[in-house]
Amino acid sequence: MNIAFFSTLPFEQTWFDQYRSHHRLTYIDQPLTLDTARLAMGHRAVCAFVNDDLSRPVIETLNGLGVSVVGMRCVGIDNVDLITLNNLGMTLLHVPGYSPHSVAEQAVALLLGLIRHVPDAHQRVLRGDFRIDGLTGTDLHGKTVGVMGTGHIGQAFARIMQGFGCKLLAYDIQPDRSLLDRGVHYMALPELLRVADVVSLHCPLTPLTENLINDQTLSLMKPSAWLVNTGRGKLVKTRAVLDALDNNRLAGYAADVYEQERAFFHYDFSDQFIDDPLLNRLRSHPKVLLSAHQGFLTEEALRQIARSLMNQFNFYENQQTSLLSKASMC
Ligand code: NAI
């Protein structure tokens, strides 16, 4: 099967080549948009990524070009118009549950980096400045950590935090039995926000969770609390978080995602003006630690994503072939 990969990052090719089997893969470094969709011409399948545009007009264009299956090499599929895909009889493949540790550990890395001033400490050492004043941190041990969304990643994060000696609270529309057995206490969101020292977001972006962290919910949090977001940028109203940080109503924000990241993340803007005042405010804020959506970026996760998705493309192709041969026998 011919598969067009959009938004291909150079390091991904090695993994997909390893599991490509007989498929012919076309690596396209441009994102999937209405303008670039035509590059899928001659391909039966498209493989897209977290910031690609899979809105109705794009899916209709792909369908018109003969694309019948879309494989998402990410967990979150909030950028896919599932209704259009379904109405056009197209198939969606994706990779739920690949190494949840990769994202959970990124959340921990950002949290520790933020509360122990690691980037600042490293910059000082690079400059030959070995003073440590202004770098006083906080222990995680004994703190109360609130996890929003206790699926694959939230659970992995909760277990790590228990290892640090934290008390774990959780909020999820579907509480997990194994976490209850481990002493994690589920509660309503407002209650969790009032008592948690750390709040970490691990739920998907849906109409119900969009802007869940806003002026009102932030006002419930302790001024000494830290917020961690490795879920999706739009779970949080960034302007509200920055205002809370400026007014000492929140201690810090560690994030791997940003609500308008699509135009910037995974590209090099180091010699260009970044025309996004909110992003500029976020990336230069002294109480913010930001990475550019790299929670999935471990060897283990990349291997699992490539293997799982290519297996699914194989399965899809075999299924279509057997359907066709059954039809020809009738
Ligand atoms: P999952 O599907 O295993 O878990 C999601 C959990 O959120 C479920 O327990 C679900 O019941 C809960 N949930 C759904 N709606 C909710 C609501 N309205 N309120 C509270 N809880 C709700 O997903 P997984 O694998 O844990 O991934 C979580 C999210 O992490 C993804 O949807 C994606 O947005 C993000 N992600 C980020 C990555 C990164 O590189 N930064 C990589 C992979 C995922």
From TrEMBL:
<dbReference type="InterPro" id="IPR036291">
    <property type="entry name" value="NAD(P)-bd_dom_sf"/>
</dbReference>
<dbReference type="GO" id="GO:0016616">
    <property type="term" value="F:oxidoreductase activity, acting on the CH-OH group of donors, NAD or NADP as acceptor"/>
</dbReference>
<dbReference type="Pfam" id="PF00389">
    <property type="entry name" value="2-Hacid_dh"/>
</dbReference>
<dbReference type="InterPro" id="IPR006140">
    <property type="entry name" value="D-isomer_DH_NAD-bd"/>
</dbReference>
<keyword id="KW-0520">NAD</keyword>
<dbReference type="InterPro" id="IPR006139">
    <property type="entry name" value="D-isomer_2_OHA_DH_cat_dom"/>
</dbReference>
<feature type="domain" description="D-isomer specific 2-hydroxyacid dehydrogenase catalytic">
    <location>
        <begin position="17"/>
        <end position="315"/>
    </location>
</feature>
<dbReference type="InterPro" id="IPR029753">
    <property type="entry name" value="D-isomer_DH_CS"/>
</dbReference>
<protein>
    <submittedName>
        <fullName>D-isomer specific 2-hydroxyacid dehydrogenase NAD-binding protein</fullName>
    </submittedName>
</protein>
<feature type="domain" description="D-isomer specific 2-hydroxyacid dehydrogenase NAD-binding">
    <location>
        <begin position="108"/>
        <end position="295"/>
    </location>
</feature>
<dbReference type="GO" id="GO:0051287">
    <property type="term" value="F:NAD binding"/>
</dbReference>
<dbReference type="InterPro" id="IPR058205">
    <property type="entry name" value="D-LDH-like"/>
</dbReference>
<dbReference type="InterPro" id="IPR029752">
    <property type="entry name" value="D-isomer_DH_CS1"/>
</dbReference>
<dbReference type="Pfam" id="PF02826">
    <property type="entry name" value="2-Hacid_dh_C"/>
</dbReference>
<keyword id="KW-0560">Oxidoreductase</keyword>
<comment type="similarity">
    <text>Belongs to the D-isomer specific 2-hydroxyacid dehydrogenase family.</text>
</comment>
